[in-house]
User: What shape does this take?
Amino acid sequence: MADFNIGKGVYVWQPGTIEGGNPEGIAGRFEMAGVQTAAVKICDGFKVLGGLEPLIQTLRNHGIRVGAWGYSYLNRAPLQEAHVVADACHRYAPDFYLIDVETEVEGNFGGARMFLNEVRPATAGLPLGLNSFWNVRLHPTFPWIDFLHKVDFVCPQVYGHGIDPVGKLIVSQQSYAEIPGAPDVPMSMVAGDMHTFKGKRPTPEQVTQFLSAVDADPFIQGVIMWAADDTQTPPDLWQTFSHYQWKSGGRTIPPQPLGWVKVKAGGGLWIREAPSGAKVGALAKAELAPIWSVTDTKWGAITQAADQWVFLGDARLVETTLDLSGESLPPSTGLELYEARVAPSRGLNVRDAIGGRLLRALAVNTIVRVYEEKNGWARINPARPEWVSATFLSRITA
Assistant: This one.
């Protein structure tokens, strides 16, 4: 497979749940998170999904590579599903296509062969990837060999759901490499999770560890994280993903907001022109928004211009990454002093105060932003007390 510089990527399932479906808003959010690649869903079964041209073109205008994916069942009319995939790919011309096939295809060797024999010549020249289970050993009746003889790469869904995602990545690589009689198909990218599934979800630390592990692997070109949709991703995991600086040719992460908010209220949340001011709009349930500044009365500005505000003080209505416990809030500007890189090969501990309780560890070469220095320590979060020893940071900017 050609080098597509996949880098740091996201799935897009339902674009309407991100920034109200506005293509410029979606592209702007992705740019702020340093997204290099978006895999957009373009078909499902017998249906080509329509109206995606403005989003795809806008993402490309912003320098974001666009791949595609679709879910195929193959249990009723696999030839028709192959035609749908081909039609969708011809319509949207993605840089690559991920064939998402899962439980419905287990044991269906005939349907898989019919589908693949039709879709492969119908998409000649387009890199096709198998986007399926993370552990081959757990699915012995899946038609692995049939798919691997037709696809150009694999992209396993390494969803840890809070259980050792880096360990699962290693097992995934081993299980694909051990398929008897399989051709040598590269694992050019992997899918990771930053969502909640049946009450289970990774921690921010696990998301960072997974991204770091993929980033450091010389054989994997990038990661596609499930998912960018607001309905899928909690605010702390989106914030963690956004803050991660991809090292292998990644986009430079721009200044980040103080935090993020997600609407819990069924009726949504009013947006006002100023704290307690006139209503100018609303955020829908499950919608994510950045918080750029905070007042001492717990109103948060969701625009850098501070012309749109929402109330953050009611935990029944919103979930936020900001600490609004009543303790003194950090400066609302969130201005950074400098950027730095974690120097020790063993990594660097993050603590909840100067010399305080251990929160997590940062891998070597992780890029951090420093917002405050005190007694040889550096605060690396604009909104929460997260401190590291400044001695072990190597400055990047003055």
Q: What stands out?
A: DSSP finds eight helices and 26 strands in the chain.
